[in-house]
Specification:
Elements lengths: L6 H7 L5 E7 L4 E5 L4 E4 L2 E7 L3 H13 L3 E7 L2 E13 L3 H17 L3 H4 E14 L4
Antiparallel strand pairs: 1-2, 1-5, 3-4, 4-7, 5-6, 6-7
Amino acid sequence: MVKSLPKNVQDLFNDREAIKVLATHSPSSMHVVPLASLMAPTPDLIVFARGYPNKETHENLLKVKGNGELASALVIKGGVAYQVRVKPLEYQTSSPILDRVRETAKPIADKLKVSVNDLFLGLWTLQPVEIIDQSLS
């Protein structure tokens, strides 16, 4: 069941200064990674650009999607934090959102002397299904 993000949670996901992580699992362990590109372009959608080093995250999301399971996204800024359980929807190698991420990251790619297309290989789309306030009391 889709759960729309309240405006304050969507805004937090879109805040460049917020800390954002994604948790997935494999049969043997949890896998938690920071993802600066994690954002919420609409209240019903969370996305992130798959970077070159995100092979384990990508593979875990493919398995989670195939098994009908969920992953968790966490966004934190100051004492405010929200965990959002998400359903992986699809992996895209071409989309307007991915184009925007690549354009934003072009200066970083130029400094690293790599193609921005090699730096960000694709875009995962995630559907929020549960929102849990994890803020400090």
